[in-house]
Amino acid sequence: MSVLELGRQELLTKINEIPEAYWHARISDDSWTVLEVLEHLVLIEKVIKNQFENLLRDGVDRETHEHPVHRSAKRYPAVEAPDYVQPTGAFQTLIDAKGALDQSRQNLLQVLEQVEDREILKKRAFKHPYFGHMQLIQWLDFIGYHERRHLEQIKEILEISSQKRSDSKVSENK
Question: For the DinB-like domain, which residue ranges apply (predicted)?
Answer without folding.
Answer: 4-154
